[in-house]
Amino acid sequence: MSNKNHCWIIFWGVMLSLFLLSGAVFAASGKFSIVGMGTTPDLMTIRAVQCVKQADIVILSEEWDKAAWKDLIAGKEAWFLGHTSQMFYGIDPQKLKKQAVKEKALRMARYRQEIIDKIKDAVAKGKNVASLQWGDPMIYGITYFLEMLPKDIPSEIIPGVGAFQAASAAVKMSPPYGWDTSSVILTMADWAGRADTNEKLMETQTSMIFYTMHLNYPLLFEQLKRHYPQDTPVAIVNHAGDRERQKVIASTVGRFLDEVKYQELPEEEHMLLVGKFLKVGQARKEGLTGSKYIEERHGKVSGEEK
Asked: Under a CB-based contact definition with an 8 Å cutoff, are residues 116 and 125 in contact?
């Protein structure tokens, strides 16, 4: 065999090896998903169910999540990562003056990086990793994974039926319809350092939906009374979306503290809705006659031309 032919054989052998190696790497690539699981297991979307079935590893917030989704995740490897992992995210630990606080911030930073490294390693080995989150992960969920992971890692967020949607369905009224308002404010308890305090938001007198973690009801209703009429409807929705446990408690801004036992409400499992929409429904102050858009876009009312 001539040296020329021998070189060509070596060349094509190397090229074939590289081709097969690149194919193996591509085939081995897995995916990371953040999955909205709905407020109750029977509100999971078809896409969510399919994603969880395909997952090799699931990330859960609490141990009891295993029981809630046992039929879907049985036999899968489970990691646990709760909301505490978000502590100090966005803060440079080196700029903290107190040593004890700095050390805690550094520990949380390492903790986050460890989970990110585990996700990267698993996906590189061809495994599908899914973070399962109650409700809709885009509303107070944990999504920083995608901010820390390399952008070339295959990823997806699957939206879910959140507490806002489920609570609105429970009261059978649509929050954007506020008689003379068209907006909905989704908020929670005031936190130190936030610019959009609830009292500032209340100045709009539009529909407000409160995620009730750590909510100080006496303080909140003191603020509401300064900005909303006393007879403004409010509603508590317990266990939104759960057909067996869901409960709606109706009241008003003026009467709430006297007639609702707010201390006994299920912690982190209830929503507070405030606004005229709870009474007027889809009725509008101007009857949607203030613009020609509807008629131009959707045509005249059936029979109007007769």
From this structure: no
Q: Pick from 189, 114, 148, 169: which is nearest to 34 by CA?
A: 148
Tokens of 111: 């903790």
Tell the burial category of 22 from Cβ atoms under 10 Å away from its Cβ (0-12, 13-18, 19+): exposed
| In the chain, where the domains are located | 26-161, 164-280
What H or E segment, with its residue span, contains residue 240? none
What radius of gyration, in Å, describes the C-alpha atoms of the chain? 26
* Cα angle: 125, vertex 86, 38; to 5 degrees: 75
In the predicted structure, residue 153 carries a pLDDT above the cut 80: yes
233 DSSP β-pair partners: 252
With CA atoms as reference, report the closest residue to 171 among 180, 181, 184. Answer: 184
CATH 3.40.1010.10 fits 26-161, yes or no: yes
The pLDDT of residue 215: 96
What distance in Å separates the CA atoms of residue 139 and residue 230, rounded to the nearest whole number?
Answer: 29
Q: Are 130 and 57 in contact (CB under 8 A)?
A: yes
pLDDT in tens, 12-45: 565 655 555 444 444 458 999 999 999 999 999 9
One of 3.40.718.10, 3.30.950.10, 3.40.50.620, 3.40.50.1370 is the CATH number of 164-280, namely 3.30.950.10
Q: Are strands 270-274 and 233-238 parallel, antiparallel or unpaired?
A: antiparallel
Query: CA-CA distance, 10 to 143, in Å (whole number)?
Result: 48
Ordered DSSP codes for 127-184: -EEEEEESB-TTTT---THHHHS-TTS-EEEE----HHHHHHHHHT--TT--BS---E
pTM as predicted = 0.86
- CA 232 – CA 106 distance, rounded (Å): 47
3-class state of residue 228 by DSSP: coil
For residue 292, what pLDDT is reported? Answer: 77
Classify residue 137 as exposed, middle or buried by CB count within 10 Å of its CB (0-12, 13-18, 19+). buried
What one-letter code names the amino acid at 60?
A: L
